[in-house]
Every structure is written in C-alpha cells, then in structure tokens.
Design the sequence.
C-alpha cells in the first residue's frame, strides 16, 4: 500500500513539474508580448549578444487590382474592339461604360514589391487566356513589366535589366511560367516592379463578369 | 485505530490533491490548445512563414455593344 502511494506521489510530482515548466514558458511569453519582460538582477555588467538574421523570401503585390467596371465596345463609332490600358489619363473612344460615359481610369497597373531580405527571381503566369476569358474575334490581354522604382531589377551579370522590356514591350500574357526579372533587389528604394496591362475586347465577346488572376512567384537568388 | 484514521485522512488528502492537479493539467492542456488554434504567442512564432507567391486580379464586366454589330460596324 505504501509503495503504491509512493508511485502515485512520484507520478504527481512529474506531472506537476511538466505543468509548471509549460506554464512558465507561456507566462513568460505573454509578459514579453505585453512589453513587460521578465528579467533578473544582472550580476555581470557586460554581456555578449549573438543573433542570426533569418533569410526571408517575401513578395507581395502592393497594387493587386485592376478593375475597369462595366465595359462595352463603342460600336456607335464603328469600333470592333474596346481597347483598355493601365496608363495615366488613358482614354479611348473604342469603349464606353454602357451608359454613354468613358470607362473608369486605371492609371497605374499592378505593382509587385520584394519585401523580404534576399534578392528574388520573379516569375509570372496567368490563370487564363484572352480567348477563353472573352471569346469572340481576336481578343487580347498583354502585360509589360517595367521598373516602378528605377534600378530594381538586375540581370545575371548585375546590370540593370528586365526580361520583358524590349523594343516591343507588351507581350501576350502567359499561362505557363514566365521569368520577368532575374534579380529583383530587396533594398527599399529599389525593390518594386510595375506590371502594365493592355486589354482588347471584341464586339462579339461573351458578356458578363470577367476576372483574370496573375500569379507572381519569387525565388531566392544570390 | 488511530493509525487507520490517519491513513484515511491521508487518502482523502491524496484524492483532493489528485483532483486539483487534474484540473490544473486540463487547464494547461486547454491553454496550449487555444494557443495552437489561435496561432498566437510562442507557437505562432514557430509556425508562421511568409509566402513568396502572391496574386493579383484584373476584373471587368463586359456589356453588349451599344447597338448590334450589323448596324454599327464599318
């Protein structure tokens, strides 16, 4: 009977220690979150602090939406396609908003930023094509990647360069992965790209709400 | 007789201790479970990671042409 009682007490002691240690960890963590770190009296005035900085690959769209609203081909003026572009003060007689007015401006396109602490290779792909999204006669969706912050993108030899920015900068969006920047830098002043969009909607496109998703992937590169 | 009374008393104390410790254990398990579910505190720091993939959306609503193409196109 006494041996059995001893075993129970030992088991309780072990459980108690586990509970105490676990609770101490959580209490210490909570105090730290509240800005009340638990400290002890320092008997040695000098100390050495060591740390390791974690490499973080992080990419985000700082402008993640282009929304033109209602769009109709302005067939009254003989247009066969509505042409839209993400450019400042862009206007086009080829489109209306369906109520006799111009389509809302989309001046800035999309913007993507490297907000980690390592250089990234940037790849883009779209989830759909213009043909399947709009249908009709010769629809088109194009993108053009440029520097939003000058000097953000470098090629493999560290020269400032873009993979998509040639003499014919706009190119048809791709549903397969397309490398658009070999090395997007991470310094705050030089870490953002702009993705301009051109859209051409034919008069015989299918009507209704349309949405295209563009996915950007960043992979760490030295 | 007196020793038997003492054993009974110790047994009651032991039962009380077991109950109290069981309650504390269950509370601690509950706290840990809550931390895991909410993703806060120490556990969050070890489980959160920043994705390096992101997406954007281009949207519009296509309306029919203002008049039928047969009447308006050139």
Sequence:
């Amino acid at each position: 009977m006494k041996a059995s009682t001893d075993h129970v007490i030992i088991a309780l002691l072990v459980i108690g220690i586990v509970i105490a240690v676990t609770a101490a960890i959580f209490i210490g963590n909570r105090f730290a979150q509240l800005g009340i770190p638990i400290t002890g009296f320092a008997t040695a005035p000098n100390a050495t602090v060591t740390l390791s900085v974690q490499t973080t690959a992080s990419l985000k769209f700082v402008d993640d939406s282009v929304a033109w609203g209602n769009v109709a081909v302005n067939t009254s003026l003989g247009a066969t396609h509505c042409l839209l572009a993400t450019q400042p003060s862009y206007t086009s007689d080829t489109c209306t908003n369906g109520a006799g007015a111009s389509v809302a401006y989309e001046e800035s396109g999309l913007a993507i930023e490297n907000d980690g602490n390592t250089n990234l290779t940037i790849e883009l792909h779209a989830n759909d094509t213009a043909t399947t999204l709009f249908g009709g006669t010769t629809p088109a969706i194009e993108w053009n990647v440029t520097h939003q912050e000058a000097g953000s993108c470098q090629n493999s030899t560290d020269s400032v360069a873009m993979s998509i920015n040639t003499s014919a900068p706009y190119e048809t969006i791709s549903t397969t992965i397309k490398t658009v920047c070999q090395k997007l830098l991470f310094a705050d002043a030089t870490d953002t790209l702009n993705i301009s969009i051109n859209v051409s909607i034919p008069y015989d496109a299918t009507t209704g709400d349309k949405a295209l998703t563009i996915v950007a992937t960043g992979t760490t590169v030295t | 007789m007196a020793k038997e009374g003492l054993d009974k008393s110790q047994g009651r104390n032991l039962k009380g201790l077991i109950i109290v410790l069981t309650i504390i254990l269950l509370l601690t398990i509950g706290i840990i479970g809550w931390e895991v579910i909410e993703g806060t505190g120490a556990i969050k720091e070890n489980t959160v990671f920043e994705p390096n993939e992101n997406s954007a959306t281009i949207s519009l609503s296509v309306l029919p042409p203002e008049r039928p193409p047969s009447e308006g196109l050139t």
User: Anything to note?
Assistant: Chain B touches chain A at residues 10, 14, 17-18, 21, 24-25, 28, 31-32, 35, 41-42, 50-69, 71-74 (CB under 8 Å).
